[in-house]
Amino acid sequence: MYGAVRTTDVEPVRDLVTSLPAGALRGLEVGCGTGRYTELLLDHLAAGSSIVGVDACFEMIQVLRRTVRPDAAIRLVCGDAGALPVPEGVFDFVACFNAVHHLHLDAFFEASTRQVRPGGHIFVYTRTLEQNARSIWGRRFPGFRDKETRLFPRDRLERAVAATAGLELFGVQEYRFARRAAVDVLEARVRACAYSTFSLYGQAELAEALGCFVASLRPGEVDWTDENTLVIARRTAP
To answer: How many CB atoms within 10 Å of residue 76?
Structure first.
């Protein structure tokens, strides 16, 4: 259910792959969840590439174990990505899609810098705090903007890269996506906690907020714009 109500954006995957060298690569995806981006990313990499997907949530890893293609070069680990028993510099890149707000930001960049080879890349795809406030949820869903304090402002992401020894900012790409969905689809996203922000509400509080949200929308289909940011960092030569 969770994966069915979330949106997967192919554009940042295509863009990050253009930053990578040609040939088979080894990648680490931190916070892979149910794998919405894992197989998509692997499909855009050269033949012979592989990905290690890590998530702290056992239930999500189990879902991905059941659904991942048997022939996919994907290894799944439940636990802390920063504590993987792998040699330093073993990966060509580390990627994190819509999950960095669940992590300790500075520790994530420090661990990822150790895990990628010199010249390797770290990609963070996320909704910034500013973008969240401008989203349909931030503008129309009661309490959403105030409750979601885990997201980072863009300048905080950039400062975290700059403060990490051996890491440099390679680029920042912002995206705007035109979305359309029926009101009942948006309701389903709330009930399924498609965004973890909804889990910060009490049951009665969420029901009341959902009622206000639906009442603020016109019947039928709703149009809005989603915004996201891709931060690209690179490990400098030792």
So the answer is: 19
Confidence of residue 7 (pLDDT cuts 50, 70, 90): confident
Chain mean position to CA 34: 12
Predicted TM-score (pTM) of the model is: 0.94
Q: Which of 29, 148, 48 is nearest to 99 (CA)?
A: 29
DSSP 73: -
The type of residue at 218 is R
What are the angstrom distances between the C-alpha of 221 and each of 141, 179, 213?
Answer: 17, 10, 14
Tokens representing 17? Answer: 């792959």
* Portion of the chain with pLDDT greater than 70, in percent: 97
Query: How many whole angstroms separate alpha carbon 83 and alpha carbon 227?
Result: 32
**DSSP code string of 142-211:** TTHHHH--SS--HHHHHHHHHTSTTEEEEEEEEEEEEEEEEHHHHHHHHHTTSSGGGGGS-HHHHHHHHH
Cα atoms in the Cβ-side hemisphere of radius 13 Å centred on 22: 0
> What is the residue whose two structure tokens read 């948006």?
186
